Amino acid sequence: MLRAIIHAGIFLMALLGLLTAEAMHPATATDSLRQKILALKIPGLTITDIQYINDGPYQPVGSTTTFTGLPAFCLVAITLKPTPVSNIRIQLWMPRNSWNGRFLGTGNGGGGGTIIYDRLANGIKKGFATANTDMGTSPGVDSAVNHPERWADFGYRATHLMTVVSKQIVEAYYGKAPHHTYFVGCSTGGQQALMEAQRYPGDYNGIIAGAPANNRTHLHTGFLLNYNAINETPGNRYSPADLAYITKTIVSAYAGKDGGAPSDSFLTDPRLARFDPGELFKRGRKEEGPRLTDAQLTALKKIYLGPVNPRTGEQIYAALPPGAENSGGGLELQQTPKGAASLLYPYRWALGADFDYRSFDFDKHQVVVDSMLAPLLNANNPDLGSFKKAGGKLIMYTGTADALVPYPDAINYYERVIHLQGSLKKTQHFFRYFLIPGMGHCGGGPGINDFGQNLRTAVKQDSEHDVLLALVKWVEEGVAPAKIIAAALGCCGADSSFRFQRPVYPYPQFPEYTGGDPGDPSSYKAVEHPRGEVLVPAEKYLQ
User: Fold this and answer.
1) Tens of pLDDT, residues 192-236
2) Which of 229, 246, 390, 399 lies 20 to 30 Å (CA to CA) from residue 201?
3) How far apart are the C-alpha atoms of 397 and 193, rounded to whole Å?
């Protein structure tokens, strides 16, 4: 104990000395840190910026957002070129006097291409030395067309190098390595998270994988199916009123029958909403609201089936979940040429910048895309044995109203991990999965949508309400999260006003309403629902 106190005192004095030097001679401190980083002799590294920033507001260069309430921190920006065509940008923000001794890697989104500053800002507010990478696709995702090495950067290399190099810089700056390391990401960030657990099991002690786009090449096949199905007939697109009508009709038919409260405007477990679209949305119903045309109904039936190989009948990927039609990033985005173009960049990488999506062959072209991109982009390997052996802990989550990364794919991945581990109990020893009722893509949506997953301030800053703090407690104290109290903020992500709270439990448990105030967490209990119960892709589409 005395030795630990002495070491802590020595480290504190060294840190105070460093801070004093920074305050008195910022130029000297900058040059000193630059020399320490260069002394690491990291191949292909260029230092593009070092700044010592005082506490308070800060607007990053090139950003239109001013972040407030920040602690004083040191900013290091670097570029890495592991190959001649690579261009991986990384920023590392390190609290100058409020470091908690931990490193936090954070994920990107979509096709990357930019530094996500709010992850950096929120990370240092929590005391973490925090890093983010553009994944090597600056200045835009199409810069990777005809550059397979940049596909590898995007798929796994940028995140791993961000992690390894940032930890070296953290140690050079503080004079001490972080005692624990964590990663938080959602969507593409969820792909990064699972890729780290699978390929580099020693990089992180704890990982949070939200709405993981890990089955990357087939996820985008789902977007393509939706676009083609809707645009097969001219004038067939859904208006906002059409989509609101579809979602409201489904929710009205099943709310309260899937574990949630009868008054819910979202579904708790959409797997229990088994219906015939032709019957539920048939023309001539007396209820008020829009009516779907025959062509719209035909497209909707295809969408609920998900992408299928037309020659073999094999399932390629999950389908849009019922109740997610009106969710952000859903069919309203996916049905337009501009929206589709923003989502279908892997096809431009594999099939050329001018590829016509309407000509896509879900049999032959899918083979081409998978052969070129799947080995680099897909994080589908269920063998997490090395991560488990290293003592790593993993939390995965998805929203039931997520229209961009449908939760059934995460269920399928988790079930494959369970199968390989031999039991749910063995899997939950190091890997737990939470399905979030009514949450959209990484947040928002009509249901619960905030539990600290985006590093913003949760309703309460403790391990029962904040998923990152729950992970830290699991890693460092051995207490696995059995329940997280999530909040519903705003309406569909429109604002941050508090609406209600609800508990969420590790899959296959769901929160079931027992009576009383639907907004009170005590009105719910954990009930185990059937496992699986979703469309399962063919094995060749799980590579």
Assistant:
1) 999 999 999 999 999 999 999 999 999 999 999 999 999 998 889
2) 399
3) 12
Structure tokens at 276: 């015939």
Residue with tokens 């094995």, as numbered in its chain: 539
Rg (alpha carbons) of the chain, rounded to whole number: 24
Q: Positive or negative CA dihedral for 269, 393, 179, 162?
A: negative
Catalytic residue among 86, 166, 187, 265: 187
- Report the pLDDT value the prediction gives residue 1, as an integer from 0 to 100: 44
**pLDDT tens track for 278-323:** 888 875 455 556 788 999 999 999 999 999 999 999 999 999 999 9
Q: 153, 402, 409, 466: which is the annotated catalytic residue?
A: 402
pLDDT of 5 higher than 70: no
C-alpha span between 329 and 324 (Å, rounded):
10
Predicted confidence at residue 9, as pLDDT, reads 46
Q: Which phi and psi (to 5°) does residue 375 adopt?
A: -60, -20
pLDDT digits (tens, 9 = 90+) for 519-528: 999 999 999 9
Cβ 523 vs Cβ 512: under 8 Å? no
State yes or no: is 423 an active-site residue: no
Helix (H, G, I), strand (E, B) or coil at 303: helix
- Going by their DSSP bridges, the two strands 393-399 and 206-210 should be labelled as parallel
Rounded Cα–Cα distance for residues 194 and 184 (Å): 10
* CA pair distance 267, 258, nearest whole angstrom: 7
Query: Are 522 and 483 within 8 A, CB to CB?
Result: no
Query: Helix (H, G, I), strand (E, B), or coil: what is residue 273?
Result: coil
CA atoms within 13 A on the CB side of 458: 26
Q: Dihedral sign, CA of 253, 254, 260, 264?
A: negative
Cis peptide before 139 (omega within 30 of 0): yes
Marked catalytic residue, from 264, 441, 463, 466: 441
Q: Residue 297: what are its φ and ψ, rounded to 5°?
A: -70, -40
pTM, two decimal places: 0.94
- Distance of alpha carbon 6 from alpha carbon 541, whole angstroms: 56
Instruction: Please report, as a single letter, which amino acid is at residue 97.
Output: N
Distance CA 94, CA 360 (A): 46
Catalytic annotation present for 441: yes
Contact status, residue 138 vs residue 158, Cβ threshold 8 Å: no
Q: Which residues contact residue 133 at a Cβ distance below 8 angstroms, ignoring those fewer than 6 apart? A: 88, 89, 90, 91, 108, 112, 115, 158, 159, 161, 162
Of 125-134, 193-202, 418-427, 493-502, which range is least confident? Answer: 493-502
For the question of residue 276 being annotated catalytic, the response is no
The two structure tokens encoding residue 248: 């409201």
Mean pLDDT (whole number) for 410-417 = 98
Which residue type sits at 160?
A: H
CB hemisphere CA count around 357 (13 angstroms)? 29
Tokens of 157: 């290399």
**What is the rounded CA–CA span in Å between residue 255 and residue 399?**
16
The SS3 assignment for 506 reads strand
Exposed e or buried b per residue across 267-290, where buried means at least 16 C-beta atoms within 10 angstroms of its C-beta:
bbbbbbbeeebeebbeeeeeeeeb
